[in-house]
Amino acid sequence: MAKAKLTKLELEVLEALWQNGESSVREIQEMFPERGRPAYTTVQTVVYRLERKKVVRCVKRISNANIFEAVISRNDAQRRFVDELLSIFGGRANLLMSHLVDSGKLTLQDVKEAEKALRRSPSKEKLP
Question: Is 0.90 surpassed by the pTM of this model?
Fold first, then answer.
């Protein structure tokens, strides 16, 4: 099954679940900053959409409130997002890296960490 794409708001709801653990829709909504907080019904819609995408699941019911938990880890969601981002660049990481360099968002420390990861990687094209 193809992995479902996640919107910014869906990622924010997931972040609330990763930080807080099992939560009701109300608890998730209250994790948002008061200024700009989405309506309860908006968060509820997003949670049920994430449930259909099999990214969250209902683990129990307390009175009339469903309690949800994240099915995927933060790391898995980040990998999904990076894969989606790379697809925008035609799967070419060098275009993305060039953009990050040009925008000043890529530091020398980031490059050093990437080199270490490449050295540990089991891929065939390794750094010397």
Answer: no
